[in-house]
């Protein structure tokens, strides 16, 4: 791919350093960030040249570990001309990674990735020296996955740092890293991470096949990859997980899943991804299992409320008033007096307004965004009721819907779409429309797969073993097995310890 973009397939290196320099000046024409540093080595005044990208290569390494040792070494007088390059590699350069290459595309990629090339007159091979030194963001707590108890470190945009964070959690030789490059122009490095002996080979092979089929000019974030390799691309539900937390990735790898790390993105993809993972947070496994189970059941209940409350309220007030207690019905009727819009229009307008406020709060700077969200909701809500654009019960319904959606941020986009569909069905058929919508939702979810694994795995199971980490989180001493269909080794704990615990 690099050869096509730079048209280097027909270009060859020669033993003339001047011709080789001209060749690279032509490849990197109109790019002032490429530095060509000419100098001479030893008493023989051997012509040399360094080529690197300004601010991507570490100048201190270049000056002290490359230029100074090469320029001021007297032993060049006693070395045959044909052996000088090997002598520089083995005796002179102070670097942990030096290799020779005559492949122009490989050399150009190395320069663009922060390495330095050393050209020596009389040789058609060029040295690639590891001098990467670009600035990276320090490790900070992840903004999207805050916890009370647990690690405070999150992934950064550097793939090397991210892999080291995963390696620190899993000190085992079975942890494997396989690298690929995606994007014909960006040449983005990605890494497939898995634990050998736990991750099924068929899932790894399927992932590699889908990655190899990606043909795009640029990959700037892991979201590009997620959209290009996911199952059910038209479904609003995620079939590939993403996280900013190294401990979350480590936990999923220990269950037999596979992770994809993308250079330049702090979000790491994990797969297969199933429905119940949206209700599981890493803090569930750090806190007491009783408290964790209560919180998890709250998330399941919030899922029901956030997709159902507007549609059920609409169905009851429009088609099934007999199901509402008389005092409550009279209160709702009194609050709606003077409201000119039908209930469905009122509900849709308030839901859209709430989503606008949420989006504004996310996009603006943090202090301003919080002010807009809080003040906007209070002012607009009060003004809408006072002006008779909306009723007070509808404001309560929309607020409850919005608050409960924040408990399941993993599927926020899917919740909005499902909520709208159920609202429209309820506006036409009442509770029957809502029931038909829920049935259709379950049929859709049950038909989905994530890399061959059923999306609703364990949700409909009647086996007690499969339910230990679904609606509730069983204590660690009771979770003997890993999730089925996701690993080659289901046993999580050894036999003698199980007997002792029992």
List keywords for this structure.
3 domains, disordered C terminus, 45% helix, 502 residues, elongated, 5-stranded antiparallel sheet, alpha+beta
What does this structure look like?
- The protein has 502 residues and is α+β, with helices and mostly antiparallel strands.
- It has three domains: 2-129, no CATH class; 159-273, no CATH class; 303-443, no CATH class.
- The chain is 45% helix and 12% strand.
- The strands form three sheets. It has a five-stranded antiparallel sheet, sandwiched between helices. Strands 6-7-9-10-8 form a five-stranded antiparallel sheet, sandwiched between helices.
- Residues 1-5 and 496-502 have low confidence and may be disordered.
Oligomer: single chain
Helix-strand string: HHEEHHEHEEHEEHHEHEEHHHHHHHEEH
Poorly predicted runs of 5 or more residues: 1-5, 496-502
Backbone CA Rg? 30 Å
- Strand ordering within the main sheet: 1-2-4-5-3
The helical percent reads: 40-55%
Span of the ends, CA to CA = 59 Å
Count of helical regions: 17
Overall pLDDT level? 83
Structural class: alpha+beta
Q: What is the count of β-strands? A: 12
Question: What can be said about the biggest beta sheet?
Answer: 5 strands, antiparallel
**What form results from the Cα inertia axes?**
elongated
What is the beta-strand fraction? 5-15%
Q: How many domain modules?
A: 3
Compile the SSE list and pairings:
Elements: H1 2-6, H2 17-27, E1 34-41, E2 46-53, H3 59-71, H4 84-92, E3 98-101, H5 104-112, E4 116-120, E5 126-129, H6 159-169, E6 175-182, E7 188-195, H7 201-212, H8 222-229, E8 241-243, H9 246-254, E9 258-262, E10 268-271, H10 289-318, H11 326-335, H12 343-363, H13 366-386, H14 392-405, H15 412-429, H16 431-447, E11 449-450, E12 453-454, H17 495-501
Antiparallel strand pairs: 1-2, 2-4, 3-5, 4-5, 6-7, 7-9, 8-10, 9-10, 11-12
Helix pairs in contact: 6-9, 10-14, 10-15, 12-13, 12-14, 15-16
């Amino acid at each position: 791919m690099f050869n096509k973009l730079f048209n280097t397939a027909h270009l060859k290196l020669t033993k003339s350093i001047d011709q080789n320099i001209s060749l690279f000046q032509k490849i990197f024409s109109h790019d002032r960030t490429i530095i060509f540093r000419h100098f001479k080595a030893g008493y023989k005044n051997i012509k040399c040249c360094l080529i690197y990208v300004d601010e991507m290569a570490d100048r201190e390494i270049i000056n002290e570990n490359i230029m100074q040792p090469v320029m001021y070494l007297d032993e060049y007088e006693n070395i045959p001309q044909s052996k000088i390059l090997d002598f520089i590699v083995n005796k002179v350069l102070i670097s942990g990674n030096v290799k020779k290459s005559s492949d122009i595309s490989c050399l150009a990629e190395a320069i663009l990735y922060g390495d330095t090339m050393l050209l020596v007159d009389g040789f058609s091979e060029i040295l690639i020296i590891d001098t990467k030194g670009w600035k990276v963001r320090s490790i900070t707590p992840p903004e999207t996955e805050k916890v009370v108890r647990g690690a405070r470190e999150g992934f950064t945009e550097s793939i090397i740092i991210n892999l080291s964070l995963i390696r620190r959690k899993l000190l085992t030789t079975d942890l494997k890293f396989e690298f690929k490059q995606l994007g014909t122009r960006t040449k983005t490095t990605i890494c497939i991470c898995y634990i050998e002996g736990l991750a099924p080979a068929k899932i790894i092979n399927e992932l590699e096949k889908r990655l190899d089929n990606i043909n795009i000019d640029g990959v700037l974030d892991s979201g590009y990859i997620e959209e290009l390799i996911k199952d059910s691309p038209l479904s609003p539900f995620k079939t590939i997980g993403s996280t900013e937390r190294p401990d979350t990735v480590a936990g999923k790898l220990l269950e037999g899943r596979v992770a994809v790390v993308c250079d330049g993105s702090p979000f790491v993809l994990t797969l297969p991804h199933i429905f119940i993972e949206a209700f599981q947070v890493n803090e569930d496994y750090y806190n007491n299992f009783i408290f964790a189970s209560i919180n998890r059941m709250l998330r399941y209940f919030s899922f029901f409320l956030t997709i159902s409350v507007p549609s059920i309220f609409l169905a009851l007030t429009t088609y099934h008033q007999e199901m509402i207690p008389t005092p409550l019905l009279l209160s709702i009727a009194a609050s709606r007096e003077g409201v000119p819009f039908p209930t469905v229009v009122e509900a849709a307008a308030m839901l859209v307004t709430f989503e606008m406020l949420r989006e504004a709060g996310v996009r603006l700077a943090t202090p301003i965004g919080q002010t807009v969200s809080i003040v906007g909701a209070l002012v607009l809500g009060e003004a809408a009721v006072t002006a008779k654009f909306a009723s007070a019960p509808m404001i309560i319904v929309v607020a409850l819907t919005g608050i409960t959606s924040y408990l399941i941020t993993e599927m926020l986009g899917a919740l909005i779409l499902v909520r709208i569909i159920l609202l429209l069905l309820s506006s036409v058929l009442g509770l029957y429309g809502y029931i038909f919508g829920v049935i259709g939702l379950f049929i859709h979810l049950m038909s989905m797969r994530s890399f061959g694994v059923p999306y609703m795995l364990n949700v409909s199971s009647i086996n007690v073993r499969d339910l230990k980490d679904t609606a509730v989180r069983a204590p660690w001493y009771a979770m003997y097995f890993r999730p089925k269909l996701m690993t080659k080794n289901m046993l999580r704990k050894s036999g003698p310890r199980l007997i002792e615990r029992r």
